[in-house]
Amino acid sequence: MASPQIDVDEIVETLEQIRQRGHSAHTVFRDWVNLMLFALQDRDDPYLEIVDDYRERGDMAHPDGQRSVDLFAKAFGQLQERMAATDADVLGAVYEEYGLSSDAFGQHFTPHTVCETMAKIAGVGDENDTEDRQTVLDPACGSSRMLLVAGRKQPDALFVGQDKDPLCARMTASNCCFLNLDAYVIQGDSLTVEFQRAWQTLYSSLGGSVRELDDEEVEELHEWVTDAFENTVEGDNQPSPAQGTDTGAEERTPRVGMSVPSEQASLGAFEGSD
Ligand SMILES: C[S@@+](CC[C@H](N)C(=O)[O-])C[C@H]1O[C@@H](n2cnc3c(N)ncnc32)[C@H](O)[C@@H]1O
Question: Residue ranges of region Disordered (predicted)?
């Protein structure tokens, strides 16, 4: 697939209207991502905490439709529209564009065409490889662009993304949910294998879902990932942590085990990461 030209001007303009009310670009972008992720998880309390922060700063004085909470919702709708139109990592593109105006955040992610090539080299979507369910790992996932490209090639794989940057981990959790992928998203350092928090996204024919894992589940996930890295489960069908948990979501593939090291398509490389 050719690299899509992602025009994010409309979304950036909407977020910019909020920033001009005296917030930093980083605060606006972070709050937008958090609001989306809390809404996707039906987590009212942390969602309303953010809304209250804006309310306390006079947000209700703006006319209906122009309050910051309305503009956040508008930007969410625009994001969905752009994603449907481009089939690309629009959230990451907004981050790249919006981060340019900020000293507090911003970086560039891998261009879509390069992600396509890397997924091909890693054997994602290889039709000859039918033995086990593939696991696609990006240990420095940024906004999850590589995982999304891989997800289009092989939507029934299990995806694992890790990033030490909380904002990137949250963008990845949101994106994996939007793309309706089965994924684990970890916030933590891949080099020291420290996990601070993690989310699971689940495929469903009605659309993806996302939930944050509790401490015990994060610990289980940590063990599973550590085992996978240490190559101790080769040939051993070990289900991923939450495959034994009744999450209420349907599974599009049977509960297959994974011989992770042999089937793992690792996309991430630390070269070029910050
Ligand atoms: C240039 S981005 C690449 C993102 C993505 N893989 C892509 O190609 O678009 C590098 C990412 O690596 C993350 N990173 C750097 N060192 C890391 C580490 N030790 N553990 C986890 N993430 C790390 C950064 O936070 C950043 O989001």
Answer: 230-274
